[in-house]
Amino acid sequence: MLPDFRLRQRDYLLNISQAMNSQLDLPSLLKLILESSVELLAGQAGLIVLRHDSGKLSPAAAFGLSRETVPLFEPLWRDIPRDAPNAIPDISMRLALASRSTGVPLRQVVALPLSIEARNRGYIFVFRARGAASFTENDNQVLRTFADNAAIAVENAYLYRQVSAERERLNAIIEHSGDGVMIINPFRIIRIWNTTLTNLTGITAKEAIGRPCYDVLNLKTKQGAGLCHTQCPILHPPANGPLYIEGYYERRDGVKIVFADNYAPQRDEDDEVDQYIGTLRDVTRLYEAEDLKETLLAVISHELKTPVSIIKGYAGTLAREDAAWEPAVLRDGLLIIEEEADKLNKLITDFLEASRLQTGSLKLHLTNVDLPDLAAHAINALKATTANHHFAPDFPPDFPPVPGDYERLNELLTNLLSNAIKYSPNGGLIRVGGKALQKTVRLYVADEGVGIPATEHDRIFERFHRVDNGLTRQAPGTGLGLFLVKAVAEAHGGSVWVESVPGHGSTFWLELPQ
Ligand code: ADP
Questions:
Q1: What whole-number percentage of the chain has pLDDT above 70?
Q2: For the domain 180-282, what is the CATH code?
Q3: Third-level CATH fold of 4-172
Q4: pLDDT value, residue 181
Q5: Distance of CA 467 from the midpoint of ligand 1 (Å)
Q6: pLDDT tens digit string along 183-196?
Q7: In terms of C-beta density within 10 A (0-12 exposed, 13-18 middle, 19 or more buried), how is residue 420 classed?
Q8: Which CATH number fits domain 367-513: 2.60.120.260, 3.30.2290.10, 3.20.20.370, 3.30.565.10?
Q9: Which atom of ligand 1 is nearest to the CA of 478?
Q10: Of 106, 116, 229, 382, which is most buried, counting CB atoms within 10 Å of its CB?
Q11: Gap between the Cα atoms of 293 and 291, Å rounded
C-alpha cells in the first residue's frame, strides 16, 4: 500500500488525533503515536525518542524492533541540536551509520520532529525496508500536521504527569505533616483528613470525609460546653488576626486532647473562598503543664493553709498575756502545733520530691531490707493515729530480704497505710502481708474502705489525681502520695497496682525484685 494513499485518509488522521488528545498516560500515548505513524507511512518499524530536561534524547517507545537493538540506532539522534526544533540534519548519513551498527539493512527512514513552537520534545523515526515513492508537498503537509498534533498530545501527557507528580508531592506533605491537616469547603464539609488526624482522633479519613467538621471534631471547653457551633472562627472571623480556635476533644476511648486549630482560607479567581486549610496541633501537653501549675497552686493554698492557720491559732491563743494556761492545756496545744508542723513538713517534702522527680529519677541507698520488720515499724507509727482501725500483719516466716532503700520503702508503706486509714472512714481491718515469688516479692495493703472505681485504677497514680467522690473532698490530701509510691516502686525496678471494687475495700500491691 502506498503511503500517499494513506495520507489522504483525512478521517483516519482525524481519528488518530482525537485518540491522541484524549490519552494522558505517556507510555500508552507514545505507543499509539508510533503505531499510527508506522501505519501512516507504510513502514515496518519505528522508534520515538524524547528529550529530557537536560536536553539529551533517548528512546521512549519502539515498534517492530527488539529491545536490544533499540540502543544501536543511537547514531540517528546523536547530536541533533535542541535549538533547531525541526531540523533533521543529514538523515541519510545517520541511516548509514545506524545500518552499520545494527546490521539491519535500512533503506529508508522518515523522521518527524515532535516540536511545539520553538521547543523540540523529540522525534518519531519510521523505518521502511524498501524505498517507497517520495512524498508530495501535500503529503508532507499532512505528516507535519500529524506530528504537530502528536507533539501537543505528548506535551499534554507531560504536563499531566507533572501535575500528578506535584499533586502526589502535596498529598505526601499533607499526609506526613506532624500536625493534623483537614481541608474543608466553605460549608465546613470535610474534604481532606490526613493520617496524623486519624492517629490523634482515632477517626479514619473514610469516616470523616463528607461530614461537617463540627460533627466530626466538636471542640468543647474544659467544662464541656460546645465551641464549634458558637465560636467557629470561620463563621465569626476575628476583625484582625488568624482564624483560630482551641478546645478539648474527647476521643472514643475517653482520652481528652486539646487542639489548637488554625484555618487558612484559599480563594478562587473570583476572590471567593473555596476552601479552608486547617492545621490542627495537639497542645494537650501545654495545657497539662498549665493545669498542673493551677492544681499545684490550688493544692498548696488549700493544704498548706489549714495546718498554718491551726498552728497560728494555737500559738496565738497560748501566747495570750491575759491567760494563764494549765500545764496540761498548754501541753495539748503544743502537741497539736507539733503535729500540724509535722504535716506541713510532710507536705513540703512531698512537693519537693514530686518536683524533683520531674527533673530526674530518685536516688536510692540500697541495703537488704526486711519487709516484715519494716511493715511492723510503719504500722506501729500509725497505730496511734486511729482508734477504729485494726492491723493484721501477714508474712510467711521465710520471707526473703530485698535490696531496697529503707527510708523510701518506709515512706511508700506509710503512704499506703495512711491511705488505707483515710479512705476507710468507718474503720475496719487493714491487712499488710507479703509472699515470695521466684524472682520477686509481693507486698499488699488491704483495707475495707470505700474502694476505687475501675476507671480510676491507673489514674490514681498520676500526680495530683484524686478520685472525685464525697470522701475525697472531705479527706485532706494532695494527690501526690500514690504518685510518689509509684515512683519509689519503679526506682526499685518494681511496680504497683490496685485491685478494688467500690464499697468493698481496696488492695494495693507492690512487687519488688529480690
Ligand atoms: P491523696 O490521698 O493525698 O488524695 P494519693 O495519691 O495518696 O493522694 O491518692 C490518690 C487518690 O486515690 C485519693 O485521693 C483517693 O481518692 C484514692 N485512694 C488512694 N488510696 C485509696 C484507698 N486505700 N481506698 C480508696 N481510695 C484510695
A1: 92
A2: 3.30.450.20
A3: Beta-Lactamase (3.30.450)
A4: 96
A5: 7
A6: 999 999 999 999 99
A7: buried
A8: 3.30.565.10
A9: 3
A10: 106
A11: 5
